[in-house]
């Protein structure tokens, strides 16, 4: 069953909330898999970005990161450094307040609304997809170093869609010409297939959707997966694919 992205975003937040609510004080200060950040830093980053979503004005206004030479990672590091040091209970409450307001706020925008985001403006539905992708990726940064379970779900369909949909952006970042790519991916249940793009496209990527999403999040390299890339530029597509803005 295909579920609404706003409902799936709320479900992703609930899954992460359950994990965060189980942490001990020592685990909050544990290094995460995000270079240079503790678990607290990761949650602070998520809280800060969710608060940004809540204050977005509609319309084709300037993207949040329009200055030349400014990087997403650089801005995120600056924002985290400026507020680092909150007590875990306060930090969790701050993230909860911002995050659980996001799905309803994005759903409430009328059709045709565009909201400024990192490099461009997005529809509320696409912005919800990017928030799901970011929370899922950072959940890996928290759960894996701590040995916590964080099972993959059918919600990864949205993340895989985003990675495929933004391949032209990824090609452009790497200075490569855009080529059509067809993705034939196996869902986390091991049987459902998710397909994106034209089956007649010259380039094809096949394999587990969870691995495709992790490559797009830069949590795995293509060589660490069972993904197969066939056809012209398919290997390039798998190398440059991303489900986040740079």
UniProtKB/TrEMBL annotation:
UniProt keywords, alphabetically: Isomerase, Pyruvate
Annotated Mycothiol-dependent maleylpyruvate isomerase metal-binding domain residues: 9-143
Single GO MF annotation: metal ion binding
Pfam family, one: MDMPI_N
Keyword hit for Transmembrane helix: no
InterPro entries per the UniProt record, alphabetical: DinB/YfiT-like (IPR034660), Maleyloyr_isom (IPR017517), MDMPI_metal-binding (IPR024344)
Identification of the protein by name: Maleylpyruvate isomerase family mycothiol-dependent enzyme
Native source organism of the sequence: Nonomuraea zeae
């Amino acid at each position: 069953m295909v579920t609404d992205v706003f409902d799936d975003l709320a479900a992703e937040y609930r899954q992460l909330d359950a994990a965060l609510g189980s942490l001990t004080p020592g685990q909050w200060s544990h290094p995460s898999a995000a270079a240079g950040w503790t678990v607290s830093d990761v949650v602070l980053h998520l809280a800060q970005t969710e608060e940004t979503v809540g204050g977005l004005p509609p319309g084709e206004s300037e993207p949040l990161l329009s200055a030349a030479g400014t990087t997403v990672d650089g801005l995120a590091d600056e924002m985290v450094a400026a507020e680092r040091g909150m007590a875990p209970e306060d930090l969790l409450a701050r993230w909860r307040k911002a995050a659980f307001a996001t799905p309803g706020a994005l759903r409430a925008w009328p059709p045709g609304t565009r909201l400024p985001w990192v490099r461009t403006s997005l529809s509320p539905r696409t912005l919800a997809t990017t928030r799901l992708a970011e929370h899922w990726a950072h959940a890996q940064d928290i759960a894996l170093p701590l040995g916590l379970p964080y099972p993959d779900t059918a919600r990864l369909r949205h993340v895989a869609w985003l990675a495929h949909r933004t391949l032209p952006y990824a090609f452009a970042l790497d200075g490569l010409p855009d080529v059509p790519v067809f993705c034939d991916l196996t869902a986390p249940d091991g049987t459902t297939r998710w397909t994106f793009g034209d089956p007649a496209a010259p380039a094809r990527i096949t394999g587990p959707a969870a691995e495709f999403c992790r490559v797009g999040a830069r949590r795995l390299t293509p060589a660490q997966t069972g993904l197969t890339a066939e056809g012209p530029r398919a290997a390039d597509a798998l190398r440059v694919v991303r489900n986040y803005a740079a």
